[in-house]
Specification:
4-stranded parallel sheet
Length: 127
């Protein structure tokens, strides 16, 4: 089955890294479905859930935004990943693999014990 890549970027037109990732993924349409949230904050939850169910892997792609995902990705997660669908009884995500593909826009050394943010990027992404 294909991998669903859900993209949230507040300014994708000016992105270098995220836009390049998308460009590369589009070369493999049999393997990846690109779903760009754009700047939307309104989602057809049933449609979004069906799209996820029709793929066996899910990748969330976004730039780090105030030590988190962009606000529309957060709203998408809150709206789509509800109890009784994404977890709890009737868990539809049970057999799905989920990954994060993030960019930070700064040098890796800034995300370290001795760097600017005092934590590794993997630690910041734990929540």
């Amino acid at each position: 089955m294909k991998t669903l890549v859900v993209i949230a970027h507040q300014n994708l037109e000016e992105s270098k890294v995220n836009a390049r990732w998308i460009e590369e993924l589009k070369k493999y349409p049999d393997e990846f479905t690109i779903h760009n949230l754009g700047n939307s904050y309104e989602f057809d939850v049933v449609k979004e859930q069906e799209m996820i169910k029709s793929h066996d892997k899910l990748v969330l792609q976004f730039p780090i935004y105030w030590f988190n995902c962009p606000p529309n990705m957060k709203k998408w997660l809150d709206d789509v990943f509800v109890e009784g669908w994404a977890y709890g009884k009737n868990n539809q995500m049970k057999n799905h693999k989920v990954s994060l593909l993030v960019s930070a826009g700064i040098k890796e050394k800034n995300y370290s014990k001795n760097g600017r943010y005092k934590y590794a990027l993997s630690e910041i992404l734990v929540p």
